[in-house]
Design brief:
0% strand, globular, 172 residues, membrane, 8 helices, transmembrane, single chain, mainly alpha, transmembrane helix
Length: 172
Amino acid sequence: MRLSLLLYFLLILPISREVLESYMVTHMFVQLPLLYAVGMLFPNRKEYKTRHIWSNIIFVLGLLSFWMVPRTLDDALVNTYTEILKFISLPLIGYLWKVSWRHLSEMTLAFIYTQLVSMCGLFAWLYLDTPIQICNNYLINEQKIVGAIYLVITIFMCGYLLKIAFIGNKKT
């Protein structure tokens, strides 16, 4: 709990916000995952009952979809309310995912993972191929770098899916 609170405090500091939000790459691939990790590091107080799992998963997937929209990332830089929402919702996403994922079936997890792969591929294509500036607060060359990173992530995720399909997911 101390580690999660320390990390959260460090991320809220104005200097770290300014540094991490100054470039699209650090905003998207450093600050947002670290906020998610804050929720993952927060300890469980009690075991969730099965009836809460699906509402948690639907809430988490809805919020993740919200934060995947480029306009939302852009809005978090200029709108204080959206930034506050970012610092509240992303740790909540991490915590709810942590307490819920182990109760899901392998088929459901595979479906969610496959959807994540397709979304990363879609964003790679979007950021690499769009000739216009998607985010008003970031330059087009930063957009191309983010697209390349999404493409690399998609390739590694596809490789992992192929490994599971042909070799299996044995933990030895």
